[in-house]
Amino acid sequence: MKDKMTPLQRxxxxxxxxxxxxxxxxxxxxxxxxxxxxxxxxxxxxxxRALADAVIATYRRFGAxxxxxxxxxxLLSEAMGAKMKxxxxxxxxxxxxxxxxxxxxxxxxxxxxxxxxxxxxxxxxMEYVHEELKDEVPCTALIVGPxxxxxxIIGVEKMTKxxxxxxxxxxxLCEISLENCIRFTDAAIKTGVGISIAEPMASCTVIxxxxxxxxxxxxxxxxxxxxxxxxNGVSIHICGQTKAIWTDIADMGINAFSxxxxxxxxxxxxxxxxxxxxxxxxxxxxxxYAGTKEEVRKAVIKSVQQGYKAKKGYGIMSxxxxxxxxxxxxxxxxxxxxxxxxxxxxxxxxxxxxSINKYEE
Length: 361
Description:
Layout: H1 7-15, E1 25-26, H2 33-37, H3 48-62, E2 67-69, H4 75-79, E3 83-85, E4 93-96, H5 119-133, E5 139-144, H6 146-154, H7 156-165, H8 167-189, E6 194-198, H9 209-230, E7 235-238, H10 246-251, E8 256-259, H11 265-272, E9 277-280, H12 284-289, H13 293-307, E10 314-317, H14 328-341, H15 347-355
Parallel strand pairs: 1-10, 2-5, 5-6, 6-7, 7-8, 8-9, 9-10
Antiparallel strand pairs: 3-4
Helix pairs in contact: 3-5, 6-7, 6-8, 8-9, 11-13, 13-14, 13-15
């Protein structure tokens, strides 16, 4: 199935209250983009052209409503001294934090985004992507937020202990992390891209709402304020369960919030859907990676049922980044189901679409 509008045409029409062809849809491939362009994931660590070409090829292949430059959660922490595992054809992971003890905090550097670690590679990839796709689709950089980066600087386990035993040191780590987030983000914005934030360690699955408000929210809020001083808006994804902090996120003035599959879409829309766009929650593993085509189709329709009445808007999206080997045909189904639903969306149409099977398994 083919779209009748580009993502930018769709977004502009929606903003003006005009008719669109379908709801926004973003499968959220992450490093699966390497499978679309035919390169190794490790190529992204040294070649900005390979990273950009994979982002561009993925947009051309599926027609999703975003072109995102992102590889892993550790770009900033690596630039601040953390050591990485870099597999030949899999996602980069944290090997060692930047410091082993809070007494080493003065060793943490302020980064130069044009020189340090893989940051220049990503900045150049952003330039390439924006230059080629800027007239068709919103181009963004997904940047890890200040609290999550702070956790990777010293290690998650030690950070958890510090939150109980040494609050002052946690704040110092978050302040350094915030400054480096701002430095990289400022350079990213200068390439022309928009900004989306990933703050997975803010999840209520990881820390309590109390600790979120004490340690994460002050720095995330400052970061959001910085981005909004430069751009019209900003989006965020937080993994896991987030219900207890939904209103906190809305209070920061964030424009769009992506929720994980274990979060309740209907509940989220009823709670904050009048204050921000809500996206997400199609299961990336059990459905998108391991499900049949019909299971993908039904999951998308059910997510739309729960979300499409959000006053500020709703978008179809997987609840988190898709596993690398997610079947391409399942990604096609997500996009084609958005086209099948079309516009306008009604309860009756969705009930009818759920009552029929489109794919013979």
